[in-house]
Write a structure and sequence with these properties.
The protein is α/β, with parallel strands linked by helices. Helices cover 37% and strands 15% of the residues. It contains 11 helices and 12 strands. The strands form 3 sheets. An 8-stranded parallel beta sheet has the order 3-4-5-6-9-10-11-12. A two-stranded antiparallel sheet has the order 1-2. A two-stranded antiparallel sheet has the order 7-8. The protein binds NADP nicotinamide-adenine-dinucleotide phosphate.
Length: 317
């Protein structure tokens, strides 16, 4: 499998396992099966509420001799109520305790959205802090501290626009090396990809398969269904692979990491195998042509009456 190279010579396997919505009962088995079949990159986050189960699976896999810690790439993310320099390291230490790890390979600021520290689930305007009140630059100092303490090998961000990346690059002593964002054939993110790839920032594509198991409240009635796309289906049929595999291969072939979520053994295997599929130049062009500029995770859930965040100012669009 191809790997993305980081500045400190660490290497991230291009395809990893997503774990959002993987229920505590299911995620333990999914991680154990995934690592046994060859996954070496797991994407986690404190807010997914399942890091303890993932930690149990990772610990057993190491004890059973299936994998060594240094062969794994584990990413996790700082939740919105832990922005601010002083909160980052304690939050990361909790994640490390839950995952039963000494260090992460990559720690990301989950969203450019801050909540008050005592409020993990902000609902009303006064639960939030604007980015003027709680600047990203201050949170980033905590992220840099995490690297200096050896608690994370690499640091980065998630859901950042080009504008927010540029501001962060100006003040960062340790540059962000990853931006994890929604990316799939209906939301190809060409401008962001170009900026990141020419500034030494890797990209991870989240919700690459259209995130069909998102909570109903995050869905819209008129949504196009990515996994039913006729053009991708034609490529898949021609190659004798699945629609999901064509999508994952297309992302990886753009030099972008991809983290499909599954808790189903045959889909886990199918997704892993996709990292070895090559699309022709013509197929890559056909995929490029189906962009709809359509987000599934639209950021509108951060909008509350009188609050500091809107989908427009989160994405800077
Ligand atoms: N940074 C962020 O803000 C952010 C936001 C969203 C997601 N993420 C990360 O990205 C990961 C992936 O995104 P996601 O979970 O939103 O959605 P996704 O990976 O696009 O889609 C997951 C859905 O696709 C199904 N699926 C998986 N493989 C399949 C296949 N080969 N054929 C057909 N269906 C398949 C899964 O069902 P089964 O499980 O039943 O197979 C599940 O219903 C997350 O789990 C999380 O780690 C990060």
């Amino acid at each position: 499998m191809n790997k993305l190279q980081f500045n400190n010579n660490t290497q991230m396997p291009i395809l990893g396992l997503g774990t959002w919505k993987s229920a505590p009962g299911e995620v333990y088995t999914a991680v154990k099966e995934a690592v046994k079949m060859g996954y070496r990159h797991i994407d986690c986050a404190a807010i997914y509420g399942n890091e303890k189960e993932i930690g149990q699976a990772l610990s057993e896999l190491q004890q059973e001799g299936v994998v060594k810690r240094e062969e794994l790439w584990i990413t996790s993310k700082l939740w919105n109520n832990n922005h601010g320099k002083a909160n980052v390291v304690p939050a990361l230490k909790q994640t490390l305790a839950d995952l039963q790890l000494e260090y992460l390979d990559l720690y990301l600021i989950h969203w450019p959205v801050a909540f008050k520290h005592e409020i993990p689930g902000a609902k009303k305007a006064e639960d939030y802090l604007s980015l003027e009140e709680q600047p990203i630059a201050d949170t980033w100092l905590g992220m840099e501290e995490a690297v200096k303490l050896g608690l994370s090998k690499n640091i980065g961000v998630s859901n950042f626009s080009v504008l927010k990346l540029k501001s962060l690059m100006e003040v960062a002593s340790i540059k962000p090396e990853m931006n994890q964002v929604e990316l799939h054939p209906y939301f190809q993110q060409n401008e962001l990809v170009e900026y990141c790839q020419s500034n030494g920032i890797h990209i991870t594509a989240y919700s690459p398969l259209g995130s069909s198991d998102r909570p109903a409240g995050l869905k819209k009635e008129d949504e196009p269904i990515l996994l039913e796309d006729k053009n991708i289906e034609a490529i898949a049929t021609q190659k004798g692979v699945s629609i999901a595999q064509v999508i994952l291969a297309w992302v990886a072939q753009r030099g972008i990491s991809v983290i499909p979520k599954s808790v189903n053994p045959s889909r886990l295997q199918q997704n892993l195998n996709a990292a070895e599929i090559r699309l022709t130049e013509d197929e890559m062009q056909q995929m490029a042509a189906i962009n709809k500029n359509r987000r599934y995770v639209d950021g509108k859930f951060w909008e509350v009456p009188g609050g500091p965040y809107t989908a427009t100012n989160v994405w800077d669009e």
